[in-house]
Here is the input.
Amino acid sequence: MEPRIGFRNTKSAIFKGVVIFFAFAVTIPLIIVLLYIIKQGIGQVNWTFLTHIPAPAGEKGGGIINALAGSFILVMVASVIAIPLGILAGIYLSENPRTKLAYYSGLCVDILQGIPSIVVGIVFYLWLVKPFHSFSALSGAIALAVMMLPIVIRATEQTLLLLPPSLKEAALSLGVPYHRVILKVIVPCGFSGILSGITLSIARVIGETAPLLFTAFGSMFLSTSLVKPIESLPHIIYNYATSPYDDWHDLAWGASFILLVFVLTLNIVTKVITRKWKIQL
Amino acid sequence: MENKRAQLSDQQLKWETFFKWLLIGASAILVLVIIGVIVTLIKESMLSIKSLGFGFLWGKVWDPVQNIYGAYPFLIGTLLTSFTALIISVPFSYAIAVYLGEYNPKGWLSDLLKNIIDLIAAVPSIIYGFWGIFVLVPLVRQLETKFHILPYGVGIFTASIVLAVMIIPYGASLGVTLIRMVPSPLKEGAYALGATRFEVIRKVIMPYTRSGLFAGVLLSLGRALGETMAVTMLIGNTSAVPTSIFAPGNTMASVIANEFVEADHAEYLSALIELGLVLLLVTVVINLIGKRIISRATNH
Here is the structure.
């Protein structure tokens, strides 16, 4: 005999209350973290902060231009490598879903998505730092490119799979060669979906620290050379946050605020672009 | 005229072949990278594997100065942090999945919650770590003083809390998709028999999505195991076997992050690389199992 309906309804209502409580409770830590970073960081940001290199420990002032420039260079080089490669691999996966190569590279994308970023750091240290006996911006950028790849590939693949096959068939039946069909018809049609994958992958790697620890390493000076160590936003935060000096903490708060602004902007841009495409990233 | 056209199509044909090979090459590079990663890690950790054997995983002492390498403290540290974080995060991610999947799938409120969850995933781990050092650590220290535990502040518990927040989105977003895929005739049938909302969720939706939700938990676990920066900043970094969840410790990822650059002799470096290899294998296996379960669950 089931309990009375009044009791069951109460139970249902209580459960709903609990679910709503837990579901919305997660907004609390996010809001606390965001507000705290904004509170601590926004006061640090001024012209000097954006255009100077860090002051030595114990001295007031100084900025993070080395980290800003470094992050920009790292992300640019990583994008130049990862975007074309990712789009090409994505096209292959969506065009030839049943081949053996597609199976294995799909598997590799899954593996790549789950690889701990610190392991990527180790591997690129062994490949590109140890043989040349020097930390370098290039090794860091390539490590970041590897972290970007799975996102770009999946976004491209899923967007292209959503396109109607008639599009490709129509173009092919007009006698257009295969590569032109892909590059001039299919890719432009799925452009915004692919673009959202690109912005998302940049947002993901711009805050990555672990792959850079043993590759780009960090530097106190403004450097634009690809073969020398280079500073980056997340790395400067890590270094200064774990230092014992208050002035450096202040620099780190400012850097965190700027990093947060970058990441949130990129995510919002991605959101706006994906509104058109119902792909899961 | 005829000749020129033939030449043109010849050229196009060449381009076409080239393009096809380009696509194949791009996908093949992926496979090569993964094989390369695994081969490199195995090769470089050979020194440590040979000299330490399986004892590496059970050795309780990690003392690079004496050249003694035992990964047991880090294994325990990793498992403790990850599972504590998982236990904290699961109720939240399930609640989000049920709320967005069943109670309120559309409308501005659910859009808002969804965006908030995406933001939680978007905030870099270094920022969570930094915030943790200055806000959470003092709080935990106060709590520990109140309960008469050694007030380290940093430690496995502190790292787990931050980790829990960071992994909530992974379980949640997958859960939402799966709960929305429950066929409505099933739910309608249950309602028609007089079931309440709670009973429908418990007796129809939960059994139907059980394996998928479990896969979500696995994927969150994979994330938690490999998470480096926030944990490194909050766990306290001691190489002793942790005595309680409030004690400071180290995870596999945090040891690597802390000591890799300082590793001054070959055996030390090799031992750290072997830690990386173990970490890689564990996370990859967990991830692949999770993905397999999901693709099976979503194909029905």
Observations:
- Residues 65-95 of chain A form the longest helix (31 residues).
- Residues 132 and 227 of chain A are 9 Å apart (CA to CA).
